[in-house]
Design goal:
This protein has 109 residues and is mainly alpha-helical. The protein has helices spanning 3-23, 29-104. The longest helix has 76 residues, at 29-104. The chain is elongated and about 105 Å long.
Amino acid sequence: MKTGILIKNVIFVAVLLVVVFLSQQEQFKLVDHYVYKNAMSQINNYWVKTENWIKNIVMPKASREVSVIETSVTQEISRQKDNVVQNLWENFKNYFAEKFSKTFGTKVK
């Protein structure tokens, strides 16, 4: 392992331990409350911006794409349904034509 990476990791762990230790101290409750309040207001600000971006940009594009896909899927389902019905009718017709042919001794086209 490289020495530079090891030193960075040790410093990171030390800073993390100091933050955890200080967060438990009574003197830093006010600082913690202030930081939390500011962070939450900033996060709420970003959340509102993200929500507006999704409503104004992402949703209209997604709605257009969904409507195009919905139309093509509906057409394909209708086509497949028609094919299934036609195949079933042909099989049904051939089956009974064969039975009729065997019963009465005639040829059915």
